[in-house]
Amino acid sequence: DRIVAVIEEFFASQQALAKKKVMITAGPTYEKLDPVRFIGNYSSGKMGFAIAEACAQAGAEVTLIAGPVSLKTTHPAIKRIDVESADEMYNAAVSAFEDSDAAIMCAAVADYKPAECCDKKMKRSADDMTLKLVPNRDIAAALGAKKRDDQCLVGFALETNDEEANAQSKLAKKNLDFIVLNSLRDSGAGFGYDTNKVTFIHRSGEVEQQELKTKAQVAEDIALRLRKILP
Questions:
Q1: Which residues are part of the catalytic machinery?
Q2: What is the pLDDT of residue 212?
Q3: Residues 166-224: tens digit of each pLDDT
């Protein structure tokens, strides 16, 4: 009986997101200073790609908007759009969200970009250099502002201090249905690892603290929670 129950549960999970369209952002963005230099971060894209695979495995039609990473997708239901800058990711996400049932904002998007990009390589000199940075558009906030009642929006918060308070603030400001919080202070979590330790914070106020898991397992947990709140 237990074997049959496990098999039934497995096949049911394969169709948990059937007929749903899910958009996912993943990886870093690169903000160009000149033709050879950029401002970026250490995001590997592993978490976002794992979520894309988990949602596709659960039956969803997935659009994965990926920053510059070396990862590959395997599931045939994943449509991949490669971008480099925050502006490119913004435009792709806003366009794809219109026709999506849900969006999971997992990318580590640069908050700022250079005010100007030189068309030639900047040369070294003995003088100090000052770079002027301007804010990038907030993708999650833009989607939250236009989110319909039949859509779900999930955010991520990678924090180094006041983790839960910062995540709660993002949840409210960006009109998210739930947010996935992880801290760089947790061993085995954050950029580059194959594991992650997250806390799910829901709009209802529910807080679920998880143990350290593989990113594939965390991705499955996210897909399960997505299914529970989608209409």
A1: 41
A2: 93
A3: 999 999 999 999 999 988 888 887 787 899 999 999 999 999 999 999 999 999 999 99
CA distances from 5 to 2, 8, 16 (A): 5, 5, 16
Cβ contact 29:39 at 8 Å: no
Q: Could you please report the per-residue DSSP string of the chain?
A: -HHHHHHHHHHHHHTTTTT-EEEEEESB--EESSSS-EE-----SHHHHHHHHHHHHTT-EEEEEE-S-------TTEEEEE--SHHHHHHHHHHHHTT-SEEEE--B--SEEES---SSPPPP-SS-----EEEPP-HHHHHHHH--TT-EEEEEEEESSSHHHHHHHHHHHTT-SEEEEEETTSTT-STT-SEE--EEEETTS-EEE---EEHHHHHHHHHHHHHHH--
| Per-run averaged pLDDT (10 residues), the chain, 231 residues | 76 77 98 96 96 95 98 96 98 98 97 96 90 97 97 94 94 97 82 91 95 94 92 83
